[in-house]
Write a structure and sequence with these properties.
Layout (H helix, E strand, L loop, with lengths): L5 E2 L1 H8 L3 H9 L5 E4 L2 E8 H12 L4 H7 L13 E4 L2 E4 L2 E2 H5 L4 H8 L16 H9 L5 H8 L15 H20 L8 H8 L4 H13 L7 H10 L5 H12 L7 H15 L2 H11 L16 H7 L6 H12 L7 H11 L6 H24 L17
Helix pairs in contact: 6-19, 8-9, 9-10, 9-19, 10-11, 11-19, 12-13, 12-19, 13-19, 14-18, 15-17, 16-18, 18-19
Length: 395
Amino acid sequence: MPQTRLITAQSAAARLGISRATLYAYVSRGFVHAHPDANDPRRRLYSADDIDRLAGNKARGRKPSDIAAATLDWGLPSLSSGITLIEGGRLFYRGRDAARLAASAALEETARLIWQCDDDPFGEASPRLAAPAAKLIGTLADTFPIDRCLALLPLAEVGTAMTWQRDPRRLRVDAAALLRLMAAAAAGVAPNDEPIHRRVARAWGLDDRGADILRAALVLCADHELNASAFAVRVVASTGASLAACLSAGLSALSGPRHGGMTSLVEIMFAEAERFGDASRLVQERLRRGDILPGFGHPLYADADPRATALLELLPPDDTREALRDAMDRIGGKAPNVDFALVSLRRALRLKAGSAFALFAIGRTVGWIAHALEQQAEDKLIRPRARYTGPAPEV
């Protein structure tokens, strides 16, 4: 497993131009991660990546406009949220460890936790699709999962009412119906009242073991703090738009190759590794060309992505997967992330291309809805200002 780059307190303080006391304050506030020194348990070492990030923030200056701009690029927190915490290399939903939750919880249970439900919004019957939507599922059977979801949302007549000043309990019932709809659309079937992981597993021809792996993957994908798609959802939700409109925004953001679409790039790398027959050679060739190595590393985890760790433990051996991991280890590279794990799951269960992305979208629907509900309760429009860089105005 790749090691975190660690430096001494003296080096860290000198790099930032601060006192040791200020460094320790940064640690207590979670800006810098501290680790025990393997050679001296009385001493602590500090994450060089965290120090480099803070040094970069400092170099950008302290003007309010510079600080605001920095928050949009993996910077310090810019919006308050009680949904998800990423801290100490772990992921928490409302204070619950996501990896532990994934060991047994279903996606519906995770949704009730994240949505803060007093009752069970899944107790009502699954939505019956309007005739145009039901017909569309069959017509789009061979299309990419995200395209089915985007096409069905406006036709399904579910969650289309504006959220403005609506009863939160009614919104959660709509949310449950939308989650079932998204899962069914992504899997290419009509929604029903089965647990979501079992509905998807049956559509994909999986046994009970396969269904359980899907269940864990869906829970692990449920939310990931204020990522690009969650932010897009919150912007749309702040206007009072419907939950269906918010989900459309989330899906659109997720489709990009720097977000959920990264799974497609990981698929290409797996295929290249099998074609080369030598994962080390492939890694070196990609590095020589200046290409990215998709599926490895994550800016919010100094060591390993806990979602990938939990999911990969459930999968049977795969020679190509292990060869890629070994090749990355040999160059001191990053650990696998959730994109790598989802593609590994797709391969292990012999699912169709695009299934990794479908699982990501189904699971993340829970988080998108949570962010929409939380933003709706804020009753405040998200409207940042732009820093103008165009031509000077006419005199």
